[in-house]
Design brief:
171 residues; alpha+beta; 23% helix; single chain; elongated; four-stranded mixed beta sheet
């Protein structure tokens, strides 16, 4: 009987050590995740606008026919920022200046942006933060390839502190 208990003790020790090693590897290896908790719709129809319980309208330019709707579906967006984009000397896109800042957007509380999407070259950048410090961003531009400008699946990036917050369930 004592031998069986000793074998079980060693199995539990090895399993515990393996789970700690797996958690440590996961902390340092994975730095992004794809989620579908936010929807970005270019030129929304009335039905798509009615998906929102409420939406704020931000107008950058008057008498513009291009709209972009940002809808949080299953998350609280702590901060949503609209930036202008400039192209650096090396040809890379960089955030230029903060244009508008929105805070504490609840699910289905959308924001309708009345802004021009650049042809093939982005002119604006949406950046937002959700629970656990996850950060998503989307460049707004006209897609000349297939015309699909709507995004449903978004790539979120996060750091070590965000991973620890998720493990400890600290939103």
């Amino acid at each position: 009987m004592e031998v069986v208990l000793e074998v079980i003790d060693w199995i539990l020790r090895i399993t515990g050590l393996a789970s700690i090693v797996i958690i440590l590897i996961n902390l340092f290896v994975k730095d992004c995740e794809y989620l579908s908790n936010v929807k970005i719709i270019a030129n929304p129809t009335e039905d798509e606008l009615n998906e929102c319980k409420y939406y704020e309208e931000y107008c950058e330019e008057e008498n513009l026919y291009e709209n972009t709707l940002f809808i949080p579906l299953s998350c609280n967006v702590k901060v949503l920022k609209l930036y202008s984009i400039k192209i650096s000397e090396k040809g890379k896109l960089k955030k230029d200046k903060l244009i508008k800042n929105f805070k504490n957007l609840e699910p289905y509380h959308g924001v309708l942006f009345n802004i021009t999407r650049g042809c093939a070259s982005p002119t604006y950048l949406l950046e937002w933060k959700i629970d656990y410090g996850y950060k998503g961003e989307e460049e707004l531009y006209s897609n000349g390839f297939n015309g699909n400008e709507d995004n449903i699946v978004i790539k979120y990036s996060y750091g070590i502190i965000s991973k620890i917050r998720k493990i400890l369930m600290l939103k």
